[in-house]
Amino acid sequence: MLQQKKIAATFILFLAALAGSVLAQSQAPRIPRHKAAIVLFDGRNLDQFDTFLPSTGLNSDPAQVFTVENGVVHVSGTEMGYFITKQEYKNYYLRAEFKWGEGTFGKREGQARDSGILYNIQGPNKVWPRSIEFQINEGCTGDFWMTDGAALTGKDGVRVTGPEGKASKIDRFNKGPWNNVVGYRDPVNEVEKPHGEWNVVELVNRDGHVWQYVNGKLANEGTDAFPSSGKILFQSEGAEIYFRNIKLYPLK
Question: Is 167:145 a contact under the CB 8 Å cutoff?
């Protein structure tokens, strides 16, 4: 009897390990074959980008909202705006890292820290241009936002369009309840690491089919993106945030 119990226990442990392995594989990023990296940020300068602030326009940043410090881009968050690629891109794998700073400012003071990566950007610079957004927001990182006429079909088959001048969203997978307070963490399915640690965000954008990963976990997926190509920007949206290791890999 004792031997049978040992065998049963060993078998249960084996099944648990196997299930864990399958789960890990199901969550691992499925990155298509791609070419060598285009290094958008090399830790030294923002030469691959323009900056934009509504108050001062293109490449005018007297308040130093965007600075390069110790190999990272420091975004103060004190003004709404962004740094945006000079080039447009289509069919690529984008990888970047972020971590939150401390401050929250303006209308977002005391609210959940907010930023994001907007992509497939078409049209003039403004806050915010037509685009699909990879939301970076405490408790919401991984959501889609469609802005100013952009559209995307979610995994459930429902197409969502952001009205002109406004935005609409598609929640990330298995998202729990959300409370708009600084430091908020999803009690059901938090995908970010603890505050102050670096997070990895990955985007695959292939012919309008997009996948968003956070720390190796698939957070959201959509199809028939409109627009399906364009520039890429990183937001300043009322919260201090840092970015590093920003690389884009054209798909083969």
Answer: yes
Q: Please, which pLDDT band fits residue 29 given cuts at 50, 70 and 90?
A: confident
Q: Residue 41 is encoded by which pair of tokens?
A: 């940020």
Q: Specify the DSSP element, H or E, that contains 6.
A: helix 2-27
d(CA 77, CA 181): 16
* pLDDT exceeds 70 at position 22: no
Helix (H, G, I), strand (E, B) or coil at 7: helix
In the predicted model, is pLDDT for residue 28 greater than 70? no
Cα 144 to Cα 169: distance, rounded to the nearest angstrom: 5
Contacts of 180 (CB under 8 A, 6+ apart): 111, 112
The rounded Cα 140 to chain-centroid distance in angstroms is 10
Tokens standing for residue 74: 């420091």
Query: What is residue 30's predicted lDDT score, i.e. its pLDDT?
Result: 87
Query: At which residue do the structure tokens 């199901």 appear?
Result: 26
Mean pLDDT to the nearest integer, 212-235:
98
Rounded-to-integer distance, Cα 204 and Cα 164, Å: 26
pLDDT value at 2 more than 70: no
Give the residue from 37, 52, 36, 43 showing the smallest Cα distance to 234: 52
Q: In the 8-state DSSP scheme, what is residue 193?
A: P
- DSSP three-state, residue 76: coil
What distances in angstroms separate CA 217 from CA 48, 72, 111, 192, 200, one per listed residue?
A: 28, 24, 25, 10, 10
Residues 6+ away with beta carbon under 8 Å from 24: none
